[in-house]
């Protein structure tokens, strides 16, 4: 009996150590990301946020207007999720490099489209000049768990090579929708 109790405690200790390690990594990532910004940039950001907040508190937008706007945005998001079938479950962003006019960020997305689960990992390179900002996706890695549908792997590898996220999401939405129709049809005949 004592061995079982000790084993339970040891398992709990290992879980807590894993959680501490994960939180430490997250903290280090946040610390690393914050070091990419200079003190001047941080102060400018704080000042602009304070000005925005003061402008809103003077009556530009009341809390009821903000709630209505939030409700409208939630309705739009819900419509888009129903329309495309794409639901994002998680997103993480990490700044890898930041210079005066160049920023490289690493993104990770996961979600599902109807019954297909997907994960994306890519780097977003933003170049800024005085008039515009251009963004390029590099190192796109796509994983789609398609189960018995192996014909999606060619498409996924092609989309990964070309780095075109818009085409990927459009095609994934269409493909997943027809997979769902096919599944329902086969269930109907069983």
From TrEMBL:
Q: Identify the Pfam families for this entry.
A: CENP-P
From the UniProt record, list the coiled-coil ranges.
6-33
Keywords noted in UniProt:
Coiled coil
User: One Gene Ontology cellular component annotation?
Assistant: nucleus
**Which Gene Ontology BP annotations are present?**
CENP-A containing chromatin assembly
**The protein's name in its UniProt record:** CENPP protein
